[in-house]
Amino acid sequence: MNTTNEVKSHTHDNAPPFEAEVSRIAFAKARLAFGVHSQLSTQARLAELSKLKQTILANRSTIITRVMQEVGKCRTDALIAEILGTLDWLNWLEKNAERLLRPEQVKTPITLLGKQSLLLHEPLGVVLIICPWNYPFHNAITGIAAAIVTGNAVVYKPSEHAPCKGMVEQVLACSPVLQALVQVVYGTGSMGSALIEQQPAKIFFTGSGPTGSKIMAQASQALIPVELELGGKDPMIVFTDAPMARSVAGALWGGFTNAGQSCSGVERLLVEQSGYERFVDALVKGAEKLVVRSGDSGDADVGRMTVGFQRDKVIEHVQDALERGARLRFGAVPNVNSLTVQPIILDRVTPDMRVWSEETFGPVLPVMAFSTEAHAIELANDTDYGLCASVFTADAARALRVAGALEVGGVSINNVNMSEGNPGLPFGGAKKSGFGKLRGPEGLLGFTRSKAVLIDKAGSRIEANWYPYTPRKFKLFERFIQALYAPRRFRLLAIAWHGLRLEAFSQKPRK
Ligand code: NAD
User: Fold this and answer.
1) 345 close to 368: Cβ distance less than 8 angstroms
2) Whose Cα sits closest to atom 24 in ligand 1?
3) How many whole angstroms from 253 Cα to the centroid of ligand 1?
4) Which of 116, 269, 369, 397 has its CA 20 to 30 A from that of 97?
5) CB within 6 Å of ligand 1 — which residues?
6) What is the edge-to-edge ordering of all strands in the sheet holding 448-455?
7) Atom 15 in ligand 1: residue holding the nearest Cα
């Protein structure tokens, strides 16, 4: 196990010099490993990640149990999100990374006749990955794997609220290469800040908007690139023509999976007016059947919430909504002494309520009616957030129309929380839900620096655009440009004619 793993959590108040020292050591080790393993091919890196995939698969029960104990999610949530989601990403990398990362021949335009263009995807160096507490295994491994396969080394800091100490290191122990390339550092936000001081090549941050903003401010001092995967207030829009049973089941799962502590969970349910009452009645009936318990053996639907401050936010949002006239259709104001929170359904919700305008990040489904398609889009977009959304309708054209009009990073049609289910699709928000992507080709290349290479022959000729500049050359260049963008009919001929004259003239020395 890496020595940096032994570091204990520290608060903002104590031992910043200690945090600085731990950070310095972690980066020194990661930089060393980056140098040692810099020649590893993508294929060789994939071979190490393949060991990791097998280790995760073989040790899934231990991982699930650990995550359940620490963050309280129910067993099936842990299996699907932490294990399946992670394996699926590793699998996608195995199938696609080599193709996406190999040098690309890029078409060279006629203006650069005789030359070749190449695009290289190179590693950045040591990437800092900072994670939140809601998916402590999945978030960690997804970012780490993307960074490693692209040739980087990693310093990874989990959340102090779900450190799952030693868990990531245990799976990485399947490969000494991965062990060396990934340094895990534990601590609070001030440790995160100390790590940024070490000037990582990039910061990949997943967490809340306010922290993202602080990280960006600190990173800006040293011009460190940042990628921010932030919170959401995802809308689910249900039209009356959508099959009711499926949309009700989708809303329940979308709102309550991971006890509502999912960045792209359904936080605003918009239901078409004509079917509204029937839909909410069915939703309540469905919620009555949900089994809420932590420490289950696969027989519970919803686990406990992870941290008290998040449960308190749920209480605040629900109380605020009730004071402003919302109706509690299911559940109750959570008990301050328990992290087990019954799912809550609220209707008669208005946009000024906190439960509608702020990220709640708990098992609460506020429901609102809409009159027309335009009204649904307007309500859905009326937020600073823009992570994901879902649209349920039997009308395929309408579904695509609405998906196109939503200001979000991903849309699931007749499904919920599922655009992120495909590792080949990029995941990441619009507006204040962040920028940059994780997964998909775009997400993978986010961990690389593209390098443009132009290859010319080692001849004795000089280029037309090199010195000397003369009035004659200027004229020839003008004619050449005119030819380049001339009407199609004579273009090729004109380009050849003026290009050759320019070329011939350029070889003459200045008189
Ligand atoms: P948070 O912002 O409080 O903390 C996230 C991480 O940042 C933690 O590891 C924390 O220690 C660290 N941190 C805090 N201050 C820091 C600083 N100044 N410098 C460096 N690091 C610092 O978020 P959280 O409460 O752990 O997570 C919940 C939030 O994460 C929600 O808003 C949720 O929507 C969001 N989230 C987003 C995604 C996504 O992919 N978009 C995924 C999961 C969670």
Assistant:
1) no
2) 132
3) 23
4) 116
5) 130-134, 157, 159-160, 188-189, 192-193, 206-208, 211, 214-215, 229-232, 263, 359, 361, 387, 429, 434
6) 104-106, 116-123, 448-455
7) 189
Is 263 marked active-site? Answer: yes
Of all protein residues, the one whose alpha carbon is nearest to atom 35 of ligand 1 is: 207
What would the pLDDT profile of 475-509 be if each residue is shown by its tens digit? 999 999 999 999 888 899 999 999 999 999 998 87
Pairing status of strand 327-330 against strand 344-347: antiparallel
Instruction: List the CATH code of the domain at 235-422.
Output: 3.40.309.10
- Residues 174, 263, 267, 359: which is the catalytic one? 263
Q: Is 503 part of the annotated catalytic residue set? A: no
Under 8 Å between Cβ of 480 and 502: yes
Confidence band (pLDDT; 50, 70, 90) for 321? very high
Quick one: CATH architecture of 12-230+439-451? Answer: 3-Layer(aba) Sandwich (3.40)
| CB hemisphere CA count around 232 (13 angstroms) | 32
> What is the C-alpha separation between 266 and 417, in angstroms, rounded?
8
Ligand 1 centroid – CA 98 distance (Å)? 31
Integer distance in angstroms from the first to the last C-alpha of the chain? 72
User: Which residues sit opposite 412 in a β-bridge?
Assistant: 390
- SS (HEC) of 346-375: EECCCCCCHHHHCCCCCCEEEEEEECCHHH
Q: Which residues are CB-contacts of 34 (< 8 A; sequence separation ≥ 6)?
A: 123, 125, 126, 152, 153, 181
pLDDT at 510 over 90: no
pTM above 0.70, yes or no: yes
Q: Residue 511: its pLDDT value, please?
A: 72
pLDDT, tens only, 114-158: 999 999 999 999 999 999 999 999 999 999 999 999 999 999 999
Whole-number pLDDT of residue 17: 86
Domain boundaries of the chain, sorted by first residue: 12-230+439-451, 235-422, 463-506
Q: What is d(CA 241, CA 256) in angstroms, rounded to the nearest whole number?
A: 24
- Which residue of the set 70, 169, 229, 272 is catalytic? 229
Nearest ligand 1 atom to alpha carbon 211: 2
CA distances to 262, 280, 449 from 2, rounded to whole Å, are 30, 52, 28
Mutate to test the pocket of ligand 1, among 263, 317, 359 (most ligand atoms within 8 A of CB): 263
Q: Does 45 score more than 50 pLDDT? A: yes
